[in-house]
Amino acid sequence: MSLKAQITEDMKTAMRAKDSVRLGTIRLLQAAMKQKEVDERVELDDAAIIAIVDKLIKQRKDSIAAYETANRQDLADVEKAEIEVLKVYLPERMSQAEITAAVQAIVAEVGATGPGDMGKVMGKVKSTLAGKADMGLVSAAVKAALSQ
């Protein structure tokens, strides 16, 4: 079953269960998917949907930080609940050790020597690790590998 079909089935299940948090989050995800399809006139595949989910999770994390700074724990809790719903649609994430090993292999493959090669390495890393790893951790690993 494709990820898109799974999301649709989960929405139906949430409707039947009257799970308003899950239903609202899935509807936001579907709206983002539909917007991307209309804007780019394409049919989304699983990789594109994972990228959308990653983006939505990042937005939620940014919102949580802002809400906690403003002492609005009630709103931060809503965002955290939405993140938990969205995480279901992501594949298993790589560990920090796996990320570091993959980044070092890519740095060697590209022949990068210093921080000036960061763009070249990140381009290759994004295409290789997209959806498999937290890109914030990947970026830190690339910086560490190039600063040695």
UniProtKB/TrEMBL annotation:
**Protein's name according to its UniProt entry:** GatB/YqeY domain-containing protein
The protein's superkingdom reads Bacteria
**Pfam families linked to this entry:** YqeY (PF09424)
